[in-house]
Amino acid sequence: MSAAGPAAAGTTGPGTTTPVLAVDDVHKSFGTEQVLRGVSLAVPEHTVTVLIGASGSGKSTLLRCVNLLTRIDDGTIRLDGRDISDPEVDPDEVRRQIGMVFQSFNLFPHLRVLDNITLAPRRVHGVPRDRAEAAGLALLERFGLADKAQQYPDRLSGGQQQRVAIVRSLAVAPRLMLMDEVTSALDPVLVNEVLATVRELKGEGMTMVIATHEMGFASQVADEVCFLESGRILERGEPEQVLHDPHEPATRDFLRRVHEAGRL
Q1: Which pTM was predicted?
Q2: Tell me: the pLDDT tens digits for 206-231?
């Protein structure tokens, strides 16, 4: 769409900008356990929001709710101003605009790398095979994986598999990228190659929400850091403030424990 046409996604009129993602007072329970308790979050275009907090604080559930893998109980989730949490919305149509990378890679083991990457463009978006493969090969080349195109996932290192998972999400040109602890399943030696890929996406302006335990990484890529505890965002702000001068005692205690574990 040209600049001369109707307002592009992310704008609502002169002088106003709609966040790519807006989460408003979202609640989610599993049985009697409240996992999200009134979470609100706005992610402007070309920014990275990093979610930190202990396991069970609600980070992964929040990402799954945004991707409509888990339905919320109350509140709203908007993508470019559209309420995607409305039960009438088709989740598959929304997921075509959102890339999600999980900690467990989730590559299809019986498909070669290039087939893993081109499956969604071909099957979901109707892209012809030759075009999908050309685009997939270009992405693999860009991230230093061109020589892995015809290999099966189990022939790759964990770091390479995770980078392929990221490339697979990029293949559908997502409006928003979600990443859930993408380094937690990796040997520490392999973590840096995945983080370098994410830093490159940040440099290119990809809008992302990332849950991570890697505080050093968070400080490098985040525009905003949100600390979650017991399903609430207890503290948020710029990385320097939240990670190095937190206001909340719970944030300080969490960061102390992370530091003791060697991940700060």
Answers
A1: 0.86
A2: 999 999 988 988 998 999 999 999 99
Choice between 245 and 102, residue whose per-residue pLDDT is larger: 245
CATH number of the domain at 18-80+176-264, please?
A: 3.40.50.300
Q: How far apart are CA 194 and CA 223, in angstroms?
A: 19
| Domain extents in the chain | 18-80+176-264, 108-174
Question: Which pair of tokens denotes residue 168?
Answer: 């697979």
Tokens of 55: 């396991």
DSSP the chain: --TTSSPPTTEEETTEE--SEEEEEEEEEETTEEEEEEEEEEE-TT-EEEEE--TTSSHHHHHHHHTTSS--SEEEEEETTEETTSTTS-HHHHHTTEEEE-TT----TTS-HHHHHHHHHHHTT---HHHHHHHHHHHHHHTT-GGGTTS-GGGS-HHHHHHHHHHHHHTT--SEEEEESTTTTS-HHHHHHHHHHHHHHHHTT--EEEE-S-HHHHHHH-SEEEEEETTEEEEEE-HHHHHHS-SSHHHHHHHHHHHHTT--
For the stretch 78-121, pLDDT in tens is 999 999 999 999 998 999 899 999 877 789 999 999 999 999 89
Residue 30, by phi and psi: left (phi above 0), alpha (psi -120 to 50) or beta?
beta
Rg (CA), the chain: 19
